[in-house]
Amino acid sequence: MRISIPTLAGALLCAGFCATATAADISSCVQSLRGKAVAAGIGASTFDTHVAGVVADPSLLELLNRQPEFTTPIWDYMAGLVDQERVDDGRAMLRTHADTLARVEAAYGVDPATVVAVWGVESDYGKVFGKRPLLTSLTTLSCMGRRQSFFRGELLETLRIVQGGDVAADKLVGSWAGAFGHTQFMPSTYRRIAVDFDGDGRRDLVDSIPDALASTANYLKRSGWRSGQPWGYEVRLPEGFDTAVSGRTSRRPLSYWTGRGVSRIDGQAFAPAAGTAAALLLPAGRSGPAFLVFKNFDAIYSYNAAESYALAIAHLSDRLRGQGGLVASWPTEDPGLSRAERRELQTLLLARGHDIG
């Protein structure tokens, strides 16, 4: 059921705790938002046109604690995001947009494979932007549930985008949390980072692939990306290695790790200098794949603060460069299905008369 914000009544289930929101509460919230918007330079008519009549979506509240990068086993998460279909499509995008990507790399120092990997994970190369109108999501989350202050800021930034004419309100459709466009920027990130790379006078991450790819590279550059350096490597640990020293924030010189027998799993030499800071990741524990990661991994991680997310992008970027899959196996007898395998399974179930929702 969807309920108009000015007339919302009754108790709503809030993510993480129970709370109630009466019609008066919501009406007061919207009026408060209007005052903040006008004070921030957003026209009253802009607010009234795009927010006052918004229909709230209480179903958003239960999504606050259900982000798949935090709740899905990493082998399932990686299998769905780094499959042969996404690799093949990504390589096609590298060819199609080679000229743009070369200019992006010259401007921001981020290689094409990394930029395209972000694009692939975030929207499947522009195929999946999300289905939720940003103004509905952000207005709802500004008045209900936890993190209201955060979402109010994002709502104001969305109204600035609309008022500035860069992206029309009806084009601002994305994730439940408000991310939008080819590479799924939050509105506040858009304000700080987005660039007009195609020179049309607008920073358009929805209809301009050059703007989206350049903005992504700009984000990584500002997050500390080091041009020409690797994100990290899959590594092999010696028998008896003390895994207590692992962890993304437990950084030590590369020489520390090599001195204790850590080596690249492909047998190649490490490219960075011996003094380069590196951290050991064991996303599935001692019995799963191990990775030694550098500063560029942190730049990817900053895009969406989840190690499984950053590993998916990093590994996809390697696959786009022509490298193979992970060597070590995940510690499970069910390592996850690719999207093609999932579709095949759904087809079989439907053929046998099962209701798959």
UniProtKB/TrEMBL annotation:
GO molecular function, one term: peptidoglycan lytic transglycosylase activity
Gene Ontology biological process terms, A to Z: peptidoglycan catabolic process
InterPro entries xrefs: Lysozyme-like_dom_sf, MltB-like, MltB_2, SLT_2
Coiled-coil residue windows: none
Domain Transglycosylase SLT positions: 27-318
Gene3D superfamilies attached to this UniProt entry: 1.10.530.10, Bacterial muramidase (1.10.8.350)
Pfam families noted in UniProt: SLT_2
Listed name of the protein: Lytic murein transglycosylase
Organism of origin: Marilutibacter maris
Lineage of origin: Bacteria, Pseudomonadati, Pseudomonadota, Gammaproteobacteria, Lysobacterales
